[in-house]
Write a structure and sequence with these properties.
13 helices; elongated
Length: 354
Amino acid sequence: MSLDTPARTTHSDNRSSPYPPPSMRLFTPGNSQNHEDMSDSAYGGNPSGMNASGSGNTNGSSQSQSHFEDGFQSFNSQAFRQDQAVYIVTKLASREKLDDARRRLAHEFHMADEGMKLTASYILGLALDQKLNSVLQQLTSQASEISAVRLLINNVWALTPAQKSLLQDLLQHFLIKATTSYKNIIHNAETYIASHRSKYHLENYSTEETVKKTINMVLVKSLVALKSKYRKKLCQLFKLVAAHVPLNLLSRTLVDKFHMTPRPNVIGNGILATVALQRRVASPLAAKKNAKGADTGFWTVLSREMRELVAEMGDDRKQTRWLQWETAIIAADRVKFSADNPLPTDEEDEGEEE
């Protein structure tokens, strides 16, 4: 082989030709007839179809240019769709406020083929499942820790002074308000607490037995002392029989002391009738002499009177018979205690128990 002649390879023809062979052309004419015409013109066929001005070459050149323009437009259309898709991916990433690293991952996923997308999605699903299992394990561990902390809290849980004061205010309120039973004060107070847990900062009242039992013990213990306090603030019921203090003045004193806020500016018949009944019960007990700290029997008699009224008129204080009873007992009390006498001064508490 001569050194001046380059070795011939299988690709020599392709390199020497400025255009690819017909079999490798990207764009083809529209029909088989044009195929033949172009072949004859290019490889020495009958030149009779060509005029002096080269009209045959002009026709073939126009067709090639037309198909080139079609291919270029197709390429431009595909590029536009790709740019539009990239823009949409960018907009979605911005809307979801992805960081730079996740933005790159989103674009890489968009450009990947379908197989890679499926594989990547499956891997991400496995990663999420692994993270979820880790979170569930942590939650289980935290739940156990919370249970242990709750147990410790229950063992040392106690009402704050402010909570105790609010509970006492609640019990006192049930002593002055219109009612159908003085035996259900604890139950009524517990029902009120359950429906107003946030007011007393006792959100766990309905779920923690320790809290419920502690509050019940406080209510029972406090009620005994509050009943005695109420009777004393009534300015010694037994002396008020002789004091002839007007009903409105006596009721206002009790409301200001025992009614929960907001206190009524105008005292309704329900409270006036309650105070009138309490004073009527005290009347036959006024002459009795009781040892200090002994049970005067006031609350026992008052509860019995209330049971008899309920048996006669039912337990709905809004019924007409109850309203008529209120009007009648208020009128009777005002007739009996009509003098404008001042309230007597408080005396030492006798420590009455229920």
